[in-house]
């Protein structure tokens, strides 16, 4: 059973998400938070497996709440799935770098949200495919965007795997693209994360783009 915490400052949105999550036989809502600070506190007390986090909330926004959760060793197993209205939010990359395991736009279909929760809870990263290229492109154009060291420590095969992960492919899709077994692809991803010190696949995406290894035009 996936224990889900819902964090959104709009009561109607939270209640709608709660009804959807509770309709799934493999999920349960263990708490609701109206602010980022409440989300960070409830993630611990409610023993959540995953937090569905809105970015824009009072008291403490979703990015800072995500950073608090990711920095807490006792919450190492808690994943954060950020929900955003893409047209207005400029902070998705900051959320991923703060420790979120993925993001999804709010106008996604109900079944896709449930699938996203399962994907992130299983330890995979999830990025809404439509806005990803535009989002990263805007980030790279920003003069304040940090420059990370390139993944020089990776082997040629690992660099190929990283490039595919940065495009949002899961392990099975990476395996098919490179003619590998899913287990081998998973092993490569785990080794890449270890070499780069990445918390999860979402951070691998940031490394790939910041290093210039993958560019929006190559998507």
Automatic annotation (TrEMBL):
A molecular function (GO) term: DNA binding
An individual GO BP term: regulation of DNA-templated transcription
PROSITE patterns: HTH_LUXR_2, RESPONSE_REGULATORY
Transmembrane intervals: none
Domain Response regulatory: residue ranges: 3-121
4-aspartylphosphate, modified sites: 54
Domain HTH luxR-type: 147-212
Keywords: DNA-binding, Phosphoprotein, Transcription, Transcription regulation
Protein name: LuxR family transcriptional regulator
Organism: Streptomyces caeruleatus
Lineage, uppermost ranks: Bacteria, Bacillati, Actinomycetota, Actinomycetes, Kitasatosporales
């Amino acid at each position: 059973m996936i224990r889900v915490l819902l964090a959104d400052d709009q009561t109607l949105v939270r209640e709608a998400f709660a009804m959807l999550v509770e309709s799934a036989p493999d999920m349960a809502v263990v708490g609701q938070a109206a602010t980022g600070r409440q989300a960070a506190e409830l993630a611990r007390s409610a023993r959540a497996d995953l937090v569905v986090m809105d970015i824009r909330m009072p008291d403490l926004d979703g990015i800072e709440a995500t950073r608090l959760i990711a920095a807490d060793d006792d919450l190492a197993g808690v994943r954060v799935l950020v929900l955003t209205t893409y047209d207005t939010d400029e902070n998705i990359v900051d959320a991923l770098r703060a420790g979120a395991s993925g993001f999804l736009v709010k106008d996604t279909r109900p079944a896709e949200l449930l699938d996203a929760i399962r994907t992130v809870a299983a330890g995979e990263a999830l990025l809404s495919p439509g806005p990803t290229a535009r989002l990263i492109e805007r980030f790279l154009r920003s003069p304040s965007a940090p420059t990370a060291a390139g993944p020089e420590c990776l082997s040629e095969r690992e660099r190929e795997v990283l490039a595919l992960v940065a495009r949002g492919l899961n392990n099975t899709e990476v395996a098919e693209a490179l003619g590998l077994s899913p287990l081998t692809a998973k092993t490569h991803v785990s080794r890449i994360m270890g070499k780069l010190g990445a918390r999860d696949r979402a951070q691998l995406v940031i490394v790939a783009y910041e290093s210039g290894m993958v560019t929006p035009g190559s998507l």
